[in-house]
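Deviation from plan, reported transparently: S-adenosylmethionine complex.
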Amino acid sequence: MNRPPPKRRDAKSAPRQASPAPRAASANRPQKSAPPGDSAPRKPTGKPTGKPTGALFGRGTRKPLATPSEPPRRLFATPSTKPSEAPETKRLGPPPSRATGKAAGKPIAKAAGKPPSKTPAKPPAKSFSKSFSAHVPKPEAASTRRGIAGPKKLYPLKPVDPSRPVAPLVRGEWLFTTREGYEQDLLEELSIARKLDGARVISPGLVAAPAGYHDATFARQAMPIRAIVKTTHATELDRQVTQTLRELLVRDAPDKPWALHVWVADSEESNRFARIADMLDRSVTAQAASVDLAWANRRVPNARAARDALGWLAQVCVLSATEAVVSAQPAIDAHSLHPGGRARMRVDSAAPSRAAMKLEEALDWFGEGPSRGDRCVDLGAAPGGWTHVLLGRGAQVLAIDPGQMAPSLANHRGLEHILGSAFDVEPDQPVDWLFCDMVWRPLEVAALLAKWARRGWASMLIANIKLPMKHKAPFIERIVTILQDGGWTRVRARQLYHDREEITVCGHRK
Ligand SMILES: C[S@@+](CC[C@H](N)C(=O)[O-])C[C@H]1O[C@@H](n2cnc3c(N)ncnc32)[C@H](O)[C@@H]1O
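Because the crystal trials were delayed, the predicted structure below was used instead.
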């Protein structure tokens, strides 16, 4: 894309310099858009809001910013910085001015630089190199890179030959379901983590392995195969499944409350059996009472209720009209508390983007979320789906994005928007939560998140990380390592139901 040459600014009149990331700024990189269906990164309009902010997090007067960056490009290019450290901004010359409005409460954040320029950034000219924040990328030798360097050597997975017959499911194995199209990524993950010989794709969205793997990123649901029910007639399936469930639960979890999930894999092929799964669920419910009333009465409405009562989760994965896989395990061990891992979230119609559902699901998975008065920073916030969710919980939000927030959020109490790059902002004091849904190079995003932990700027992290096209599993390992090196603990990664070409990561500090 041809771009106009950058405007030169002289040292005195230009106190800040476009920062490294949207320092992207810098080159003629090909553009990459957000995953489809998501709130795609909107082209920043370049129009300053000119409005004073709520000034929850900042001091001084917010400057209207003249040239916010374009949405980032070249998401998965090799980063020019060390992955373990976010690009630092050298403070040289006069301190940068605030991008936020005047403070109404305790100020906690300041913008350390100008939002990325729409024009490509030039390498700093000698004459004014001392007058702005500058980033000097350190070239990194390919041999020093961790993780996916040379993935072919490390993880020589052969593509599954669709013409080869798949080994049938065996009792004692584990059944995983994944997003359709991610079966190979799950296989790769299982083979890296567990060296599971014999892991194989059963059908679109379904993978079997000789053993389980706790918290696999690409598994939506995972369950031990306790029985495989095959019937000659479809009419027999519900009776045999009910009988099998009763035997398993009465033997292994006597007197325990239990919940039942009947599901199909989320694929075109398996979704044809979704109606059968619904009918099976209803007839098991109806038959349970006649088979064993005491057992039937211990059933609780859902997996969450079973988990809270230290009960069990029974699962039935319907493979066809005459075949189903039956599982039962303590609900606390369940990979997901949603049937087949499909955590369908609803958000109110006022949410500025569907991305709000991603955050709702992430909070559900994380197990906790911000409460009233918590201070949250939302990196890559526009148009404001995540911010909307956080404000709805009564949190204070500092939204950072070179793009505009939805008009519905304008002047919202508790919200401050810095129209600029996340790479240019640092808080004046620690916040409770760091949220991030930036469409930007994932390794650089991970390094930025690591920097937030290293500096003690946030206590809890939920971030959405965009995935590369290939070798996603080793790539995720690399992302997790960067976050852990930064100081995030209990780091987990999961491709949630509402995630597309992306994953959600979470972590705590200490
Ligand atoms: C998927 S959208 C975010 C959607 C948002 N979470 C929501 O709920 O509506 C990705 C956003 O990342 C922003 N972004 C990209 N690079 C950024 C950077 N360096 N700093 C801040 N935001 C950035 C884009 O402008 C875009 O608005």
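The longest strand covers residues 312-320. We consider this an acceptable substitute for the interim report.
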